[in-house]
């Protein structure tokens, strides 16, 4: 018996040694990176003093959340530049994309397209839109399994069915609603060290937008392309993450696309035309009386990159917009 135990111990030790020699260096570098990026999260990513952080919270936490903060210059948000540089090569028009051929049910899609471009919707219309937004929530992983099953069944029979083909020279764009979304962001934006299979791949490079999540707690929520005639129907994102939503907007022609939103308090509908390049920022709520209904319509090539940002980030941007003297503008630091 002792002989077998010794042999087993020797074999186990030999296997462990081989594993350490072959896998150790790769695994070790991964562990070092995990510690390093974890440390980056825990340190102060925005380089703010305790007094500045307290001042931001006190001054801007009660800022009106139902307001759309629009036309934020790119120069005021240097933190997002690495992510923009990663995606900028993808922001190219897709030629010969005819949306009338993409939508097999032109009548229904035309109705949604018209609604997205309308400021004459009634409370009854929004109740109907709210019902369909609930139905679409079957795709939300937070919807419980029983509810998701029944909503999906209803959606398959009642909701407009659209082509799920891929488009563009790289065949990476796919249709979602009346716009295209890039497949590079289809998978969940979770910290990369939750993906065990990548630990042993020495060639694996952490995408900038995932590393950015680790550093700044800013999550990229989507990369969208609206060709001429493209749209996003009225919705509230009530089933998404609550908090500040940030969008980088780029268009081929200014004032040929726009963002419509309904004021959460006074029920009025506002039109916000897009410029050539800028950011928009607004706050998402789940409370029924504070939902931010919004839609997008475009008569030109329009791209947008969505971000969920923490309150510190949003408050810092608001301080910069207000030329707050407590915080030097980014241009002054360069």
Write a compact overview of the structure shown.
Helix content is 38%, strand content 20%.
Commentary on this structure:
With 334 residues, the protein is an alpha+beta fold. Mean pLDDT is 79; it is low at 187-204. The radius of gyration is 24 Å and the shape is globular. Helices cover 38% and strands 20% of the residues. The protein has 2 domains: 1-43; 50-333, no CATH class. A hairpin with a 6-residue loop joins strand 8 and strand 9.
Distance between the termini: 73 Å
Write down the Rg. Answer: 24 Å
Strand order of the largest sheet: 1-10-7-12-5-4-3-2
Residues in β-strands, percent = 15-25%
Mean pLDDT score, rounded? Answer: 79
Order of helices and strands: HHEHHHHHEEEHEEEEEEEEHH
Largest sheet: 8 strands, antiparallel
List low-confidence stretches: 187-204
Number of distinct helices: 10
* Tally of distinct domains: 2
Number of strands: 12
Secondary structure class reads alpha+beta
- Write down the overall geometry: globular
Helix content: 25-40%
């Amino acid at each position: 018996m002792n002989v077998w135990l010794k042999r087993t111990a020797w074999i186990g030790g030999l296997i462990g040694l081989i594993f350490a020699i072959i896998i150790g260096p790769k695994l070790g570098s991964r562990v070092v990176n995990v510690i390093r990026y974890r440390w980056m999260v825990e340190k102060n990513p925005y380089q703010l003093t305790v007094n500045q952080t307290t001042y931001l919270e006190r001054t801007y936490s009660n800022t009106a959340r139902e307001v759309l903060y629009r036309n934020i210059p790119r120069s005021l948000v240097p933190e997002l530049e690495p992510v923009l540089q990663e995606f900028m090569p993808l922001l190219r028009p897709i030629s010969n994309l005819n949306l009338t051929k993409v939508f097999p049910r032109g009548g229904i899609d035309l109705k949604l397209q018209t609604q997205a471009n309308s400021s004459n919707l009634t409370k009854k219309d929004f109740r109907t839109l709210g019902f369909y937004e609930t139905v679409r929530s079957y795709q939300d992983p937070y919807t419980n399994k029983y509810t998701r099953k029944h909503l999906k069944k209803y959606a398959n029979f009642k909701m407009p069915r659209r082509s799920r083909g891929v488009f563009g020279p790289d065949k990476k764009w796919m249709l979602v609603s009346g716009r295209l979304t890039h497949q590079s962001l289809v998978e969940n934006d979770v910290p990369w060290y939750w993906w065990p299979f990548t630990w042993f791949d020495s060639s694996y490079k952490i995408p900038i937008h995932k590393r950015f999540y680790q550093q700044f707690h800013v999550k990229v929520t989507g990369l969208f392309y609206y060709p001429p005639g493209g749209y996003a129907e009225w919705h509230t994102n009530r089933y998404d993450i609550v908090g500040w939503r940030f969008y980088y907007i780029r268009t081929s022609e200014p004032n040929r696309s726009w963002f419509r939103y309904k004021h959460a308090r006074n029920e009025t509908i506002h039109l916000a035309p897009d410029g050539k390049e800028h950011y928009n920022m607004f706050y998402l709520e789940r409370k029924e009386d504070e939902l931010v209904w919004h839609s997008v319509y475009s008569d030109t090539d329009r791209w947008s990159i969505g971000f969920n940002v923490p309150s510190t980030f949003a408050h810092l941007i608001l301080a910069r917009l207000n030329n707050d003297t407590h915080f030097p503008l980014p241009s002054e630091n360069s």
